[in-house]
Amino acid sequence: xxxxxxxxxxxxxxxxxxxxxxxxxxxxxxxxxxxxxxxxxxxxxxxxxxxxxxxxxxxxxxxxxxxxxxxxxxxxxxxxxxxxxxxxxxxxxxxxxxxxxxxxxxxxxxxxxxxxxxxxxxxxxxxxxxxxxxxxxxxxxxxxxxxxxxxxxxxxxxxxxxxxxxxxxxxxxxx
Length: 175
Prior knowledge:
Elements: H1 3-6, H2 17-31, H3 41-62, H4 64-74, H5 89-107, H6 111-139, H7 142-174
Helix pairs in contact: 2-3, 3-4, 4-7, 5-6, 5-7, 6-7
């Protein structure tokens, strides 16, 4: 059973997160291991497995990038590993530019302003790619799924950059 079926949802990118949370809580209440304290060890183990499955499904479906990747996997699209390089030369060039922007923050006179500016660039570009992924997943053609796959990988890169920026900001403000 796939995660969408487990939650009684259609296999689509757009989902109601409040509804997802409500369904999650209902499912967890039914199979929570605490309800099986006096059951056989086999029933207890089954409850733990079900609870774990429900939790994994919830964590995947509530996170947009994990959800997109999961949908692509359900559609048979093989996600390349994180270390596989991109064939998109322009994105590779953009990665270098974004890393240079991150390095420039270290030498900035006004760290707060530099962090804000870089953060805005990251967020804007992330959102543009995210919007493309939504459209591509809705189209659900082999070509759009392949494009969505590439864009999900790019979005993960932006997430990592944003985390690096947050760490850098903490480091610079602590000094």
